[in-house]
Design a protein that fits this description.
Helix content: 55-70%
Organism: Pagothenia borchgrevinki (Bald rockcod)
Pfam families: OHCU_decarbox (PF09349)
GO molecular function: 2-oxo-4-hydroxy-4-carboxy-5-ureidoimidazoline decarboxylase activity
Structural class: mainly alpha
Number of helices: 10
Bound molecules: 1-[(4S)-2,5-dioxoimidazolidin-4-yl]urea
Pathway: Purine metabolism; urate degradation; (S)-allantoin from urate: step 3/3
Strand content: under 5%
Distance between the termini: 15 Å
Number of domains: 2
Keywords: Decarboxylase, Lyase, Peroxisome, Purine metabolism
CATH architecture of the largest domain: Orthogonal Bundle
CATH class of the largest domain: Mainly Alpha
Largest sheet: none
Shape: globular
Radius of gyration: 17 Å
């Protein structure tokens, strides 16, 4: 699907949420909230509205967004219950093809991260390969909680940016 922004602006609420509801993983409330800001002059303006909504949330809300994300190479990948978007991202970065050493390291570090911070490790998988993801996961386990909360939200925005790009034509493609 690749609509232009005028088509997006003309969508009834139900279709807008059906199509764009997972640009932030399992958080259709964000899409539903920004709908009232139509018409968006460009895709960048729609993206900015999402970003501003997230930034205005209390810290507990930001942590809630992080908690809506499935672990990388976690249970949902193994059981085939990831969202379509997440599946493509995780498969593309090699999360489905870890050797047993990598898989156990990933599981151990994901667990350690969650125990330390109370929310899961989030990274824009499309921008990294598996070695890089493991390295970052290990390094980020050492950060302070507030730093990681902000860092995770930055990654959510990168994931959102790429998901929006696959759904809506960017202005320079019009
Ligand atoms: N935990 C985590 O980072 N999950 C994800 N990252 C990404 O790019 N897609 C995801 O599902």
């Amino acid at each position: 699907m690749n609509m232009d922004i005028a088509t997006v602006n003309a969508l009834p609420y139900e279709d807008f949420v059906d199509i764009l509801g997972n640009v932030v993983e399992k958080c259709p409330i964000i899409t539903a909230a920004v709908w009232s800001g139509r018409p968006f002059l460009s895709l960048a303006v729609l993206e900015a509205a999402i970003s501003e909504f997230i930034d205005a949330l209390p810290e507990s809300g930001k942590e809630g967004i992080l908690r809506c994300h499935p672990d990388l190479a976690g249970r949902d990948l193994q059981s085939g219950s990831l969202t379509r978007e997440s599946h493509e991202e995780q498969a593309g970065s090699g999360m489905g093809a870890l050797n047993s050493g990598e898989a156990s390291r990933m599981a151990r570090l994901n667990q350690e991260y969650k125990e330390r911070f109370g929310f899961p490790f989030v990274i824009c998988a499309r921008m990294h390969d598996k070695e890089n993801i493991l390295r970052q996961l290990s390094a980020r386990c050492q950060n302070e909680r507030a730093v990681e909360r902000a860092r995770g939200i930055e990654e959510v925005k990168k994931i959102c940016h790429l998901r929006l790009q696959s759904l809506v034509l960017t202005d320079n493609k019009l």
